[in-house]
Amino acid sequence: MSYDPSNIFARILRGEIPCKKVFEDEHVLAFEDIRPLAPTHVLVIPKGPYISVQDFAEQAGEAEIVAFVRAVGRIARERGIDATGHRILANHGADGRQEVPHFHLHLVGGRDLGRMLPRE
Ligand code: 5GP
To answer: Which residues form the pocket of ligand 1, taking CB atoms under 6 Å from any ligand atom?
Structure first.
C-alpha cells in the first residue's frame, strides 16, 4: 500500500483544511481531534508521508523520530496529563480500524479512561 497524499491529515499539513494546532516544529504537527473522546484528545503526526508505525520506524530519519517522541512527551506534560495519567495509541489497518492512512498517535487523558479494551 502506498501513501495516499489526498488523506485528510496530508491536507491539514498542506494547509488545505484548518486544525486547532497544539504544537508544531520542523518534523511534527499536533492538533486537537475533531471528535474528542476525552478532555484531552490530541493527534500527533509526523510531517513525512508515513502510513503506519512500521513505515515510520523503517523510513523516517533519526531526527524525525526523536522530534516525534519528544513532542508527545512535551504535549502530555503541557496538558498536565503526565501527572494524572493518559493513554497513547495508534490504530493500524483493518483490525485496528485506522481511519486516516497517515501515521498518528492519539494522546488522550483528562479523565479515567477505563480498561484498555473491552473483553470479548
Ligand atoms: P484513526 O481511526 O485513523 O486512528 O483516527 C483518526 C482520527 O482523526 C479520529 O479520531 C477522527 O476523529 C480524527 N479526524 C478525522 N478527520 C479529522 C479532521 O478533519 N480534523 C481533525 N482535527 N481530526 C480528524
So the answer is: 8, 17, 19, 31-35, 43, 91, 97-100
